[in-house]
Structures are given as C-alpha cells and as structure tokens.
Amino acid sequence: MKLIWGIFKRDMCHATRNVIAVIVSMGLVVVPALYAWFNIAASWDPYGNTKALKVAVANTDAGYKSDLVPVRINVGETIISTLRANDQLDWQFVGSSEAIDGVKSGEYYAAIVIPKRFSADMMTLFSPDIKHAQLQYYLNEKINPIAPHITDQGATTVANTIDKTFAKTIAQVGLDVASSVLRYSKSPQMAQYMENLNGNLNTMVNTLTGASQQVTSYSQLLGSANDIVDSTNKLLKSTTSAGKQAKNALRQGKSGATSLTTAGKDVTASVNSALNQMSGALDTVSGKVNKSFDALGQDAAEASKQLKTLSEQVSEGESVYDTYTASLQHMRESVEQLPDGDEAKQPLLDVIDREITLLANAKDDTQKLAQRLDDASKQVTQDTTSAQQSRTEILGQITSAQQSITNVRDDYSANVKPKIDALASSVSTLITQTTSMINQLSGTADDLTDVTGTVGSNVSSIQSTLAAVAKKLDSSATTVKTLIAKLNSSNNGADNSDELKSLTKSNASTLSTLISAPVALHRVAIYPIANYGSAMAPFYTILSIWVGAIILCAMMKVSISDREKAHVLGLGDSLPPLAGPAGPGNASRWGLRLHHEYFGRYAIFLLLALLQGTLVCLGDMYFLGVQANHALQFLAVGWLSALVFSNIVYTLTVSFGDIGKAIAVVLLVMQVAGSGGTFPIETLPKFFQMLYPFLPFPHAIDAMHAAMAGSYGNEYLLDMVYLALFLIPSLLLGLVLRKPVIRLNNWIIRNLESTKVM
C-alpha cells in the first residue's frame, strides 16, 4: 500500500507542478460535463418547440350541397379555421401548387392539400356509394430525420380532428333534432294536433263505414232489380192504371205544395221569433258577465254565483235551437213529398240541410259559452289573477255565438225562404207537365219491352262491382281504426317515458362528443418524468462519463517510467543495471510489482474520473434542473459509473496500449446503439437485444432512472450491483491476465514502431 500511495503522491505533484498542468487537469474534468450538458440542454423540450416547423396547408375543397341537405357544407373551410387556432406547428396557408413546390424546395417540411371533392366524399356517408375522403400529404424526408415524424403526427392529428369533428357534428344535429321532436311531442300544441288528428280520423272511419253501408244497400237494392225488370212488361201493360195512380199522386203533390207553403210560413215566423229571442238573451248575458266580473274584486263568491246562474240561463236557451231544428225537419219532410223530377226539390233540400248544420254550430257555440261560464264560476274563487283573461274569453264566446245566430238568420233569408217560394210557384207547372208525360207513357210502353233484357244483365254486373267496392271501404275503415289505435298508444304509452325525458333534458353537445369519441384516454403517469431533457439525462450523463474515461487515457500516461519507479523505491534517478528492459514489472525484484504499478497509476485516473462524475451529476441537478427525486442516489450512480468506466478503459489501455484505446471507443459505439437509452431495447435488432445484458451502459442508465423517478422494489440496488460486477473482469484482466499479454503487447508495439508511421 505504501508503494501505491507513493506513486499516487508523485503523480499528484506532477499534475499540480505548473499552471498548464492544472489547466489541463481541470479541462479533463470539465470537458465530459460540457458534453453531457450541451446534449441535455439541446434535447430539453424538442416537441414543445415544434411551432417553428413550417407545414403548408392548401384548401381546394369546393364544398357540398344537395336537395336533401340544402345547407352548403365545406369541411375544408372548417379545417382551415381549426388550424388557424392551432399552434403546434407553423401552419402556412397557401395555394396547392405553392405548397407542393415549397416542400420540394425545402421551404416547408410538409404540406397538406385538401382535395376539391373532400366535402362531397365525406357526405357519401349518407349514400349507398360510400367513398373514403382523403387528404393529400406531401413530405420532404431528406431535410431532417426527426421532422418527418413530428409532421406526420401533425397530419395524423388533423385527420383525427376531422373525424371527431364530423362525427360530433352529425351526432349533435341528430340529437338536437331528436330532442326538439321529443320536446315538441310533449307540448300542448302537439297534444291539440293529436286530438284534432284523432277526431278527423274517427270522422273518416265513420264516413268510410257509412259509405260501405250505403254501397251495400245499393247492391241489395239492385239485387231486386231483376225481379223489377221481369215485371216491367206487366207494369207497362198496366200503364193506364198507373197513370190514374200518378194523377192521384199529382193531386197529393198539390196538397204537399200547399203544406209546404204553410210549413214555410210557420218556420219563417219561428225563425224570426226564436233567433231574435236568443240574440237578445245573449246581449243580456254579456251585460251581466261584465257586472259579475266587476263585482269580483268585492265578492268573489257572489261573482261566481252570478256566473253560475248565467251558465244555467244560457243552457236553458238551447231549447230554442231544438224548436227551430224541429221546424226545419218538418219543412224537409214536406219538400221530400214533391216529385223527384222537380228541379227545385234537391237545391231546397240542400239549403235546408245547410241551415240545420248552421243551427247546430250555433247551438254548439252556445253550449261552449255555457261551459265557459261554468268554468269561470269555479275559477274566480281559485285564481282571481286570471279573471280578466276569462272575461275576455267569455265575451269573445258570446260574440261568436251571436255571429252564429246571425249566420243562421241571414242564410235562411237569403237561401231557404226564396227557394220555398220558388218551389211553390213551380208545382202547378210540374203537375201539368207530368200529366202530359203520363199520357205519352201509355203510347210508348210497347217500345220499352225489348229494353228489359239488356237491363237485367247490366244490373247483375253492377251488383258485383258494388259488392267489391263495399269490401274495399270496409278494409279502409279497418286500416284507419288500426292507425288510430297506434297513435293513441304512441301518444299515451310510457314504455320509454323516463328515457325520452332524460334525452330531452340532456346536453346535446356532451352526448355528441361522447358519440364521436366514446373512449377517453386518461393518462396516469407511473414514475413521472418532468420533461424530455430529464428523460434523456441518464443516457447523456453516462455517455459523458465513459467519454471522460477515454479522454483521461488519451491525455495521460498509463505506464510508469523507470525513473519514477526508482524514485518511489528510493533508488535514485534510475533503476540498477540488473533491471530488465523498460516496461511493466521490471522492478519487481525490488518490491514494485505489477499490481503496485496498476493501482498506483490508476489512483489519479480514479480521482479525476470521480471529479468528472461529481461535476456532471451536480450540474445536471442544480445547473440544468434535471429531475432527481433522490439526489444522493443520483450522485452514487455517477460515482460508481466513473469508477467502473475509468477502470475498464484504464485496464484496456494498460493491457493493450493504443489498441486498448481503440477497443474502448468500439465499446462506446456499441453501447450508444444498444443500451436502450434512446429507443426501447425491444425495437432494436436481435443482435443488440442479445448483447444488451452484457454492457454496463444499460444498468447504469436504469439505476439513474430509478434514482430520478423512484425505484420498484430493489431495482436500484440490483442495477448498482450489476454495474459493479463489471469490475471483476476488468480487474481480472489488469491484474492476472495482464502478464501473458505484456509480451504480446510489447511485440505489437515494436512492430508498429518499425513502420515509422504508427
């Protein structure tokens, strides 16, 4: 140990003897640290500085518009608007040709061209012929090896944004429409529409059923036509007798005309009396309504009682309409007694029917007025705030009822009465013409005999047609009834009530976002690293310590001269003549053995290597701000790496000279590629995966990662042990296997020196 310490002490004296030696020694310590710091600082946040990468974007999208979707859609414009707010890359919005030419010239790293039919192709989603919308992506891969991957990520981000935006828009439109429809389906307007539709459909069912029954009656009536046709000959032969009966009928017609005239007069009188009475009653009701509502503020109960009384009075007045209706029915029966050939009969029947309909409408308005008065009598005691609205509605109902009465009276005067008068005046003419016709009928009876045969066959055909029509009408009525049942079930059903209500209350934007991206990625960092520079710090730090070891062996001598050996042994300035040729082990007979020389000279290498490791690790933590959750462990990795690496490189140089230095450089290159410091080891070729466990770099890097972010179990200790195990082969080579290698190394040196070049 004394000899080892003596060698180390003399080396320290020589290293600090002059200023140049001190400067060089300091440089040997600082240079590896600078190497690590520059690389770590340069890669501190490369993906956060992509804003300067120029990527051209050209929009040639012509948009899309169809009859089905009348709104013009231009996805390209949406993309441009989105990218203008994106600062991940330096987006350049230019023309198509300029974008492509810029990529070729190197002005832009990449270019994205939105084709002319981009929107049209995207909208084929709603057609049978679906086309995949494509973005044209141009990339200059020779400018930089990393830039293409960054711009690729930008292009992928654009494509993903388009997909999500499109899906979200379609989903949001659909949900908005569905929500609007569902909300509207529950609105009072929709309920009223459904009620009206139900009423109209029921009316349609009744009409179809009635038409079917009528057609069936016609068919049954025609069923007896053959019997009538068979007896026609007998009927024609008895024309004279029938003529007499017709004349009697004409006399009855005269009597009916007289009855019609009388009925018309009676109805006219009852019309004027009844309608004037009802109109006056409504005027009285209008005044009492106002008085009742005026008294509301003083006594709500009294106002309610008055309104109830008015409702009952209006209801009692409905008998007037029944009286008038009975009169009109009597008139109609009188008109029906007229001969069918009278041109005034059917128009008169039509106007009487219309008058009856108007009268029914007037009665309905009166009933509604009575009901509204009754409702108001109950409402004023419960909610006085809506009294004014109830007054307005009741007065409006009164006005409507009076207008209905006026319509009945005007229609009667304008249409019914004139036609009754005209009909009465034309009865005599009709009777005279009919008498002449009957006289002529007897003369033409013989000519009609041949017609009956043809009529018989036609009647059978018409009967079968009418039966088919009646069947179709029944089928249509059944279909409409089924539709009514389904509508009622859909309107009143509650199978999906809760789901529909929740849908109408939900946020359409949130739902559409969920549909466009149903899976959200929640990143949970295990052993988080602060930034990319910190993540790369272990690799560059370990690399710089190995580089520092190579620099030490390149700048400093690993062998000890004979003069230094003599001074250490205290033999003066030179070894005795008995010593062998200069070289390792030639002073062993005086006690300076190979391991003394090995450890004695290695001591200064170790000291400088430890200073290198300490400086680079402290600079990482406190100068660059590299993350280090366990600072002492971080330093320990640097110290152990300095010890192992410097020993390996020193041993190779001591054992093989310059060839050992070359081997150290080769090991450096191999470890840069196969250590897994930049790319995962699983992504490297098979050779490096097999070599991985037998290199010191991976274990040193893994130990430093554990010191920075935390260790799983004994991970840190195991990596430190694995790293320390590399000292075993290094020491084995430097202390044991070195003896036979010395002669080989001396022979190689002599041959190299003989070349006069190496």
UniProtKB/TrEMBL annotation:
It is found in: Membrane. Gene3D superfamilies: 3.90.20.10, abc type-2 transporter like domain. Pfam families: ABC2_membrane_3. The keyword Ligase does not apply. Keywords: Membrane, Transmembrane, Transmembrane helix. Residues 598-735 form the ABC-2 type transporter transmembrane domain. It is a multi-pass membrane protein. GO terms for molecular function: ABC-type transporter activity. The chain crosses the membrane at residues 20-38, 537-555, 602-625, 631-650, 662-681, 720-737. GO terms for cellular component: membrane. This is ABC-2 family transporter protein.
